Amino acid sequence: MNRTVFVNGEYLPEDQAKVSIFDRGFLMADAVYEVVSVMDGKLLEFAGHLKRLERSLGELNMAKPKDFDNLLEIHRELVSRNNVLEGGIYLQVTRGVADRDFEFPKNAEPTLVMFSQQRPIIESIAAASGMKVISVEDQRWGRRDIKTVQLLYPSMAKMMAKAAGVDDAWLVEDGFVTEGTSNNAYIIKNGKIITRSLSHDILHGITRSSILRYAAEAQMVVEERNFTIAEAQNADEAFISSASAFVTAVVQIDGATLGEGKPGPIAHRLREIYIEESRKAAI
Ligand code: PLP
């Protein structure tokens, strides 16, 4: 595999793309990222991801990279040069290169790295049979609304899930579910969709925002509030959302099976609506 990737203004073969060892993304995880999904060679929810990137940069007082205004074009170019029909474009901005120091450098030029990933996202085993999750204590930092590359704890939680023979972990703080390792978490009880409200505790999912809008348009009731693992285990259905998983049902939580142990009708319907609407709006 030798993709064409984008690094600081240049399209390069991936094996020739380089970033300095003094880059603060590498030394301090001083970096933010976004993942835009690609379906039929088109970008999903680009405007939402761009807006969240701008917000993440602002919250961290990080300058915009030089190519900020060309991001749509670069996304499209990577899709086209790498023939991506289905998958995603990963984008990372770091504060740039400076001698190692805890203080933010004054005049560093932000680093911009982008690459494509080709993979099936519509048809997946998880989509067909649903995911199993375990609960794990949420030990991440307190600004999860900023999409930083500090992904070590979510990776560890994912490994705990794998070691337990399941697909993912739901993170729990003060007795309440925050979100999944890389997705937002929902339960459904008596037709009502329940998900944690937005705060610094969770990432403000772009997929979440669209799903809640589509649910409201379909006259479904949405309640944004905290829920516990016990409440989730007694729910009729559960699901997660993310740019790459869309809506994926959760059928088992800490060993307790939900409903009949397969994706329920509301999660299934929301997934259909999401894929249909995103496909229409893709650019
Ligand atoms: N929560 C976390 C911790 C995530 O990492 C992600 C996606 O990467 C999400 C939620 C879902 O966000 P989005 O729908 O914007 O992909």
Describe, in plain words, how this protein is organized in 3D.
The chain is α+β, with helices and mostly antiparallel strands and 283 residues long. 29% of the residues lie in helices and 29% in strands. The radius of gyration is 19 Å and the shape is globular. The two termini are 26 Å apart. Residues 179, 182-184, 203, 205-208, 241-243 line the site of pyridoxal-5'-phosphate (PLP).
Give the total of domains.
2
The share of residues in helices is 25-40%
Distance between the termini: 26 Å
Which word captures the global form? globular
| Individual helix count | 8
Small molecules (ligands, ions, cofactors) in the structure: pyridoxal-5'-phosphate
Produce a short descriptive summary:
The chain has 283 residues and is an alpha+beta fold. 29% of the residues lie in helices and 29% in strands.
What brief labels describe this structure?
single chain, 283 residues, alpha+beta, D-amino Acid Aminotransferase, Chain A, domain 1, D-amino Acid Aminotransferase, Chain A, domain 2, 2 domains, nine-stranded mixed sheet, six-stranded antiparallel sheet, 15 strands, globular, binds pyridoxal-5'-phosphate
Topology at a glance:
Layout: E1 4-7, E2 10-13, H1 24-28, E3 31-39, E4 42-43, H2 46-59, H3 71-81, E5 87-94, E6 111-118, H4 125-129, E7 131-137, H5 152-163, E8 168-173, E9 176-180, E10 184-189, E11 192-195, H6 206-217, E12 221-224, H7 229-233, E13 237-242, E14 246-253, E15 256-257, H8 265-281
The protein binds pyridoxal-5'-phosphate.
